[in-house]
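Bench notes, afternoon.
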Amino acid sequence: MQKQFTIPLSPRGLSSIAPPPPWHYSGDFLLVEFWADPAAAAAVLPKGLSIDPASPGHATALFIDWQFTAQDDELLDPARYQYREFFILIDALYDGKPVSYCPYIFVDNDSAMMRGLIQGFPKRYGQVYQTRSFAARSPAAAPVAAGTRFAATASASGQRLARAEVKLEQAVADVSKLGIAGRPVVNLRYFPRLAAGEHQTPAVNELVMSIMDNAQIADVWSGEGKLSFPLAEGEEISDLQPVRVGAGFRGSMAYSVTDLKTLVDNTK
């Protein structure tokens, strides 16, 4: 019998949107670093975080094709536990230390959305696609080799929100140079109250740091990056429109989640 963890709290736990930890993730990513207007980047940071003066406006856009499992071979249920994701990480400081913050994130799977909300990622439903690589040779195979071009897009509510492209040039020997490797992710866990008179006193209001166990980054290639955030009605991602685009990367990553560190609890 699976333990109850998330709603619905069904008798046997099988209908829960997300299973209990440990959670294990493996995926292929497309990453493009960019610089937004520092004022626009600062505007998305929650209380407790500030722009990193060493890299004002610097951010990364990530598209990831994920496979997930917990402790019950969930990877054998790909319709429920495979998903794709797009998100942005902004360089910031917490207590004088470099961190990154995720202001926007889109995912195409309800279990992934629930797990993300529990961790403080502000996930919304969207459609995310990226070029895949296959071993069998073909004009459609997109081999991981110099000269190959990879692209990714994200959209929501019928509107294109982001497009990235990376033309591979060379393998990366030192993956510590990737922005995602050196900065822990800080999120805001926030859930409001609906009761009249309590709308401004949320039930949950916590600044938290993600804990990623056994994090690995492998088979990374770098190259020319391209990135754009088209103007979309009712969306604010384009406020972070790149004023400069840096390198692009394509690779694989994996990590596990069993814990979360609360930095500040503003709930009370």
